[in-house]
Amino acid sequence: MESSGNSPGKFEQFRIRISRQFQTILDKTVPLAVPRWSFAFTLYLIYWVRVWYLNGFHIITYALHIYFLNLFIAFLTPKVDPMSYDDALDEDESEGQLPTRGGEFKPFIRRLPEFKFWCWATRATCISFTMTFFEGFNVPVFWPILVMYFIMLFVITMKRQIRHMMKHKYVPWTSGKKKFMGKEDSGTVIDQRYQ
């Protein structure tokens, strides 16, 4: 009996089943932010212990931290560029629609959500850890130069990001859900029409 051209083979079915099971496990970890980040930090510490013990793989470590910096910047950046959003509002107002600038609530939506940030950072740490088992990736470099260059790159990038945040007046974090704090309810209802 021949299989049709559209049905996946046994290997593909196995891969799909494993992928679904892994995705189910990931989906269950979404509300568990502290344990997820604890796991990621533990992996990161294990990676550092290995690099320190081997006294090598500085290029891999440098590349990992550059990747972390890119993820962090994407995490701090809004999904919609405020410049293009302001331009779109100006166009809407010029077409005769009511202005919505003053009181409209615009929540901060990240370019890179927290869960994807964690997932990609953990995956990058695992890949870097695996690369330390192959001597071909242990390129001899003078590591203090890489550290100085990374610090310089970090300062310049964060300075630019903070200027962007100040210019467009957004804060990439919230301190929790805002609660309505109304007047205390005395329990009596007064109908103003009959007084």
Would you give an account of this structure?
It comes from Oikopleura dioica. It is a multi-pass membrane protein. Belongs to the RER1 family. This is Protein RER1. This protein is mainly alpha-helical and 195 residues long. The chain has a domain at 43-98 and 106-170. The protein is built from 6 helices and no strands. The protein has helices at residues 10-29, 33-54, 58-76, 82-94, 114-131, 143-168. Helix 3 (58-76) runs antiparallel to helix 5 (114-131). The longest helix has 26 residues, at 143-168. The radius of gyration is 26 Å and the shape is globular.
| Termini separation | 89 Å
Which residue ranges are poorly predicted, with pLDDT under 50 across at least 5 consecutive positions? Answer: none
Please give the number of β-strands. Answer: 0
The major β-sheet equals: none
- What fraction, in percent, of the residue positions are helical? 55-70%
Proportion of beta-strand residues:
under 5%
Gyration radius, in Å:
26 Å
- The gross shape turns out to be globular
* Helical stretch tally: 6
Mean pLDDT: 79
Taken in chain order, the helices and strands follow as HHHHHH
What structural class should be given to the helix and strand makeup?
mainly alpha
Quickly list its features.
195 residues; single chain; globular; 6 helices; mainly alpha
Summarize the structure.
By secondary structure, this protein is mainly α. The protein is built from 6 helices and no strands.
Task: Please give the structural blueprint.
Elements: H1 10-29, H2 33-54, H3 58-76, H4 82-94, H5 114-131, H6 143-168
Helix pairs in contact: 2-5, 3-5, 3-6
